[in-house]
Amino acid sequence: MLNFIKKNIGDSQLKIADDGSVSFSKESTKKEGKEGTDPYKETTVTSVWKYQGDQYTKTTTTEVKDKDGNIITLTEIHTQFKYDYDTKKEAPLIITEKTYKFQEGLSSINENSDYILVKYDAVTREPLEVEIVESGQKSYAKYNPETKQIEGDKKVAEQLQTLRTQHTIRTYFAEAERVLTEFQGLGYYATLFFDEDSLLEWRDSVDKIFATFYLGTEYWSSAICGTYLDGEDEGIAYAETPQGLAQVGAHIEATRSEPIQAINATEFIYKITFNVRNGDYDKDPRAPEEININVVLKGQRTANVFKQEQKVKRGSSFGRTGRNAIVQDSNVLYTEVCLTFDRIPLRWKLDNGELCNTIQESSGE
C-alpha cells in the first residue's frame, strides 16, 4: 500500500505519525464570478486519506465562501475502508455525512456551528445513526440491530426513523423498477391476448402483488401512501395506480468522482442515470400526449445535459441506465441533479415541475 501511495503522490506529500499511520491530502479551489460581487463564490474541496494497517479513512470537506469570505456551505464526508484480502481491494464500511448550519446572528459557518451528522452503511446506504447539535446542545439516536429498535433522543429518533423508512422504500422501488422493466419482454405477446384496459389492469395488479409480498399491505398503506404520496422522495417521483397504490413514475440519481488533479485544473467525472415513464400504453388517459424533459446539473453553476428537451410520448419511457448511463467529465463542481418536466401524468405526485437528487461522491478508488 505504501509503495502505491509513493508511486502516485510522491514522498514529499506523505505524513507519517508516531502511531505508524500514513496520511496525505489533496486540495482544489474553484472560483466563479467576479471577486467582490454578489454572484462570486469560491469552492474549496479538500480530501484527506489516512492509512493504518489494513484500514484507511478518507475525509472530503467542501467549503463554499461568498464575496466577503463568509463560509456559506460546509460539509464533511468521512468514509471508513478496510482491506479485503479475498478481493485484494479496499471495501467501504461506514460513511458519515456532516452538514453544518448557520447559527442565528452569525454571517458565516465555522467548525463550531450547529450541524446534523448521519452515519450510513457504506454498501447498502442504510442510515444507522443521527447526531444533531442545535444551539450547542447535542442529541443522538442510533439503530440497534439486535433489538431492531431505534434508541436515543425522541426527536432525533423520529428523524432517524424517517431516514430509514425512506431508505427502505428507495431500495424496494429500485428493485421493483428493475423487475417491472424486465416485463417489457412480454410486450408483443401481451398485445395479442389482452386489450389495452386489461393490460393496464394486469400491470396495476403486479404493483399490488409487489406491495403485498414485499412490504405487506399494512406497511404499504402506512409507510408509502401516508408519507410519500404527499410529494416526492429524493430522486423518485411516485405515480398512483387506480387501486391507490404507488408505482415509480420517474427516478434520477448521479455520482461524482473525487477531485482529479489535471494540468492547471481540477476535474470531476459524473455518472447520471434516470428514467421517465409517461403512462402505461399509448392511449393511457392518465398520461399527456407528450412530455418534454431535460436533465439539469446544479452547483457552482447550472447546466442542461441535453441541448434540446427530450420528448417522451404517451405510453413510452425514456432514460439512461446501465450501459447507457451518461458519463461526462467537467471542471465544475455540481452537487445536485434534476429532471425537469413541462407537464406530468395524472396521479403523479411532484412539486415545482422538477425532480431532484443529491449527487453522491463515489466511494470507490
Description:
The protein has 365 residues and is an alpha+beta fold. The protein has two domains: 2-123; 164-361, no CATH class. The protein is built from five helices and 23 strands. The chain has helices at residues 2-9, 154-182, 187-193, 196-215, 217-228; strands at 15-16, 22-32, 41-52, 55-65, 71-84, 89-100, 115-121, 127-134, 137-144, 149-152, 236-240, 246-256, 260-262, 265-277, 290-299, 303-304, 310-313, 317-320, 326-330, 334-341, 348-349, 354-358, 360-361. The strands form three sheets. The protein has a ten-stranded antiparallel β-sheet, covered by helices on one side. Strands 11, 12, 13, 14, 18, 19, 21 and 23 form an eight-stranded mixed β-sheet that branches. Strands 15, 16, 17, 20 and 22 form a five-stranded antiparallel β-sheet that branches. The chain is globular and about 70 Å long. The chain starts with a helix and ends with a strand. Mean pLDDT is 78; it is low at 182-194 and 212-232.
